[in-house]
């Protein structure tokens, strides 16, 4: 019965895919691109409705596209053609007939698995294992406790400690849910519990303050680094494919640094002014001491991990100078951590989150690349741009960014939101002549920051919201308030910073 209900949950996605695939082909698209668009729409629907893992939905999508020959194949002489045209004949310029020499099914499958050699997918995969090392050694927990102890002399100070903990861990743990839910959340809940507040007590100013600060800090820190959230590499990949710009680790951080760090600095005071929490600091100090004692002294594995992480940061930031790709740096880090016995090969094998994310991210990259190759992204971008055709490039950029931000209301997954909309919005910006780097950094920031709008936007937010310290209606209201602050800072300080950088 359970299996039947799971299949029923997938029916809306199947119906959407079939209907769109068989709609009349509009100008600018082909039958092949319509099938790809239909399957992609089915994937987005499946992510919202189907009771299957994201990777399963994508595996089915790739198989369907392979069997229907709905990719762009490469012929033996290097031509790019739609796979369903393989082995068909065409008349050359000389008038002679030739055959497109390629394998429609085999070539389609080659495209389907091409994402697994993508460097971005490998960067996220390796970063997950670095995150496992941070968790295994207890380093992440030690950092969080140390920050709370050092900054926890006031309620706002505790909020800043949580923000700094997220900030320190964000470059190394590319799952905002794993970082927020697996490392920072237990610390936050321990602090709340130590002060005599329990979830069953319902709404509570202190619990609400720490939950909102932690969940929003998780989103803001995710926007700072390309490795801060699993969907970020998709943004970078689409920026590169549509605008031809390199939006790597250093450039992403440079562009995001000023507005995102300012918002992190503003977050605790704003939430404190709104919720007015009170803290028993004597009790808090006892709880921190108890948890710190349970960790014991700093182990050799933590020193090895810190040295490796420091080297990673230096090489990542200095990529233009050292000439070592960010993915290669992360790959080397994993091997070093294994060789110095911080991680074992069993840790790599059993890190199912890393493997799962690697699969669905690689699959999404294939879909994104093929949507561009078959003209779907450009067609959607043209459609979006028609409503802004009279606006200036800057006005168009800001309008697209605001629309992208509030479209998050339609999704319960940041990654799904990125996959569904970042390509079309970039394509619209390309048609409208938007400054490439300005639009790229705005969508990069808003991909994570838009998660403040709802209590179900991503796993880490849902974990905090489920504790009940803040009612859902109030969470939505605070989300709108925070969104206004985010947009205000981004469109003032952010625009000034990007103007200084020469990005528009």
Automatic annotation (TrEMBL):
Alphabetically, the GO molecular function entries are:
transmembrane transporter activity
Q: Does the keyword Lipoprotein apply?
A: no
InterPro entries membership: CitT-rel, SLC13A/DASS
Regions that span the bilayer: 7-25, 37-65, 150-173, 252-275, 295-316, 328-345, 357-381, 401-426, 438-463, 475-498
Note the topology in the membrane: Multi-pass membrane protein
Mainly localized where?
plastid
Subcellular location(s): the record lists: Plastid, Chloroplast inner membrane
Q: In its keyword annotation, does this UniProt entry include NADP?
A: no
- What keywords are assigned to this protein? Membrane, Plastid, Plastid inner membrane, Transmembrane, Transmembrane helix
Q: Which Pfam families match?
A: Na_sulph_symp
One GO CC term on file = membrane
PANTHER family from the entry? DICARBOXYLATE TRANSPORTER 2.1, CHLOROPLASTIC (PTHR42826)
Task: Name the family.
Answer: Belongs to the SLC13A/DASS transporter (TC 2.A.47) family. DIT1 subfamily.
Q: What is this protein called?
A: Sodium/sulfate symporter
**What is the species listed in this Swiss-Prot or TrEMBL entry?**
Coemansia erecta
**What are the top taxonomic ranks of the organism?**
Eukaryota, Fungi, Fungi incertae sedis, Zoopagomycota, Kickxellomycotina
């Amino acid at each position: 019965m359970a299996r039947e209900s799971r299949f029923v949950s997938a029916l809306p996605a199947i119906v959407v895919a079939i209907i769109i695939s068989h709609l009349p082909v509009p100008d600018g698209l082909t039958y092949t691109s319509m099938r790809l668009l239909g399957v992609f729409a089915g994937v987005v629907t499946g992510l919202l409705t189907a009771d299957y893992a994201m990777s399963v939905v994508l595996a089915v999508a790739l198989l369907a596209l392979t069997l229907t020959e709905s990719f762009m194949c490469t012929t033996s002489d290097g031509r790019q053609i739609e796979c369903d045209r393989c082995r068909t004949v065409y008349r050359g310029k000389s008038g002679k007939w030739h055959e497109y020499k390629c394998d429609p099914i085999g070539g389609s499958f080659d495209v389907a698995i091409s994402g697994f050699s993508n460097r971005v997918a490998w960067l996220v995969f390796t970063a997950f294992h670095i995150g496992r090392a941070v968790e295994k050694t207890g380093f992440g927990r030690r950092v969080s406790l140390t920050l709370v102890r050092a900054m926890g002399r006031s309620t706002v100070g505790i909020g800043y400690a949580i923000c700094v903990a997220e900030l320190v861990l964000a470059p190394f743990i590319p799952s905002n849910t794993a970082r927020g839910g697996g490392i920072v959340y237990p610390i936050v809940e321990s602090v709340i519990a130590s002060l005599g507040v329990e979830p069953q007590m319902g709404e509570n100013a202190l619990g609400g303050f720490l939950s909102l600060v932690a969940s929003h800090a998780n989103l803001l820190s995710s926007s700072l680094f390309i490795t801060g959230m699993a969907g970020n590499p998709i943004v970078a990949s689409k920026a590169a494919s549509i605008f031809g710009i390199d939006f790597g680790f250093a450039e992403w951080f440079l562009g995001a640094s000023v507005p995102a760090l300012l918002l992190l600095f503003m977050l605790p005071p704003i939430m404190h002014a709104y919720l007015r929490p009170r803290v028993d600091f004597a009790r808090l100090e006892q709880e921190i001491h108890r948890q710190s004692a349970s960790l014991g002294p700093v182990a050799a594995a933590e020193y090895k991990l810190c040295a490796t992480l420091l080297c990673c940061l230096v090489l990542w930031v200095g990529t233009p100078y050292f000439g070592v790709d960010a993915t290669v740096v992360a790959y080397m880090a994993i091997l070093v951590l294994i060789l110095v016995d911080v991680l074992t090969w069993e840790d790599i094998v059993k890190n199912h989150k890393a493997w799962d994310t690697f699969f669905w991210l690689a699959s999404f990259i294939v879909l994104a690349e093929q949507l561009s190759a078959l003209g779907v992204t450009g067609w959607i971008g043209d459609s979006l741009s028609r409503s802004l055709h009279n606006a200036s490039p800057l006005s168009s950029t800001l309008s697209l960014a605001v629309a992208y931000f509030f479209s998050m209301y339609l999704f319960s997954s940041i990654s799904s939101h990125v996959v569904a909309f970042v390509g079309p919005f970039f394509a619209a910006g390309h048609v409208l002549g938007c400054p490439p780097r300005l639009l790229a950094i705005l969508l990069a920031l808003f991909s994570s920051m838009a998660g403040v709008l709802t209590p179900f936007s991503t796993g880490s937010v849902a974990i905090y919201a489920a504790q009940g310290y803040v009612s859902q209606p109030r969470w939505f209201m605070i989300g709108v308030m925070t969104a206004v602050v985010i947009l205000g800072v981004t469109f003032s300080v952010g625009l000034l910073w990007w103007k200084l950088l020469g990005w528009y």
